[in-house]
Amino acid sequence: MSEITVRVADWHRDNAELRRIRDSVFVAEQSVPPELEWDAEDTDALHFIAEEGDYPVGTARLLPDGHIGRVSVLKDWRGLKVGEKLMQAVIAEAEKRGLHQQMLTAQVHATPFYERLGFRIVSDEYLDAGIPHVDMVRTSQ
Length: 141
Description:
The protein is an alpha+beta fold. It has helices at residues 15-29, 34-37, 82-96, 111-116; strands spanning 4-9, 46-52, 55-62, 67-73, 101-107, 120-121, 126-128, 131-139. It starts with a strand and ends with a strand. The protein is built from four helices and eight strands, in the order E-H-H-E-E-E-H-E-H-E-E-E. The protein has a single domain, classed as Gcn5-related N-acetyltransferase (GNAT) (Aminopeptidase, 3-Layer(aba) Sandwich). Strands 1, 2, 3, 4, 5, 6, 7 and 8 form an eight-stranded mixed β-sheet that branches. This is GNAT family N-acetyltransferase. InterPro entries: Acyl_CoA_acyltransferase, Bact_Acetyltransf, GNAT_dom. One of its GO terms (molecular function) is acyltransferase activity, transferring groups other than amino-acyl groups. Keywords: Acyltransferase, Transferase.
């Protein structure tokens, strides 16, 4: 396996790859309706792509208010620290932009992953697109 790198994506230039990853993870695997996956916030978000070599394998987005979302890694690359590298890049960029509090909605099964990155649960469990979620917050030191 080549080294995993993370870069800021260009929503227009990288759109096909962003869509390929998110459609594979959320729409195909998790049965999230496409109309819920794709929203108007995508055009205002800062997008990130994790790549093995030059092949995109993961993505995430950062909204101007510090919300992190659409964190997704293709199935064959899970467990290889791709998500961790992706989140570290998003958190670093958020802090660089003065967003010292980052928020996200996490699928319940993924909360231990986010807790290792410093996020804490701040809500009760609820359903989003039929999947159990909780809200989580991280505050920079």
